[in-house]
């Protein structure tokens, strides 16, 4: 009964999956919890995702999951722990898609986002969704620095491809593979992400 109620509540909503499972090896501490905008890097991304109408948010955790989930304690989101996080980003994407389909088997689209793009905003997510409906393309990627990347929207016809990614493979593999079904939206400062202490210092200074 509870599952039916959940499915009914989420029907026609788009899933936003935030990948936050890595161990931030180059940084040496969890990037998800870096202080940013009187909040944290991860919570900022989550907050922007929650502003998007007709959406539900899944956060995929892995390394430091207990600490991250404790710090984020938001009832509006669903946490999904990826015990295979050390096997690369593909495992977190698959984990997120499985959780998405568990919550809402009839979900038509999802957006994949990462937790370390500090300038991501609800407008970026909304532009992806709007462009999907306008262009009728199956993949809508963010464009920055002469590349296409996250956040990126996928129609459900690509969910199986996302489940079958391996190792460090991410969304870019499918963006390249299905280039004829891809359209993009501009994400200014999308190239800025946080991998090192130097990156973080530049962000906050």
TrEMBL record:
InterPro entries, per database record: MobA-like_NTP_Trfase (IPR025877), Nucleotide-diphossugar_trans (IPR029044)
Domain MobA-like NTP transferase: residue ranges: 17-180
Gene3D superfamilies attached to this UniProt entry: Spore Coat Polysaccharide Biosynthesis Protein SpsA, Chain A (3.90.550.10)
Cited PANTHER family: MOLYBDENUM COFACTOR CYTIDYLYLTRANSFERASE (PTHR43777:SF1)
Protein name: Nucleotidyltransferase family protein
Organism: Flavobacterium humidisoli
Highest classification ranks of the organism: Bacteria, Pseudomonadati, Bacteroidota, Flavobacteriia, Flavobacteriales
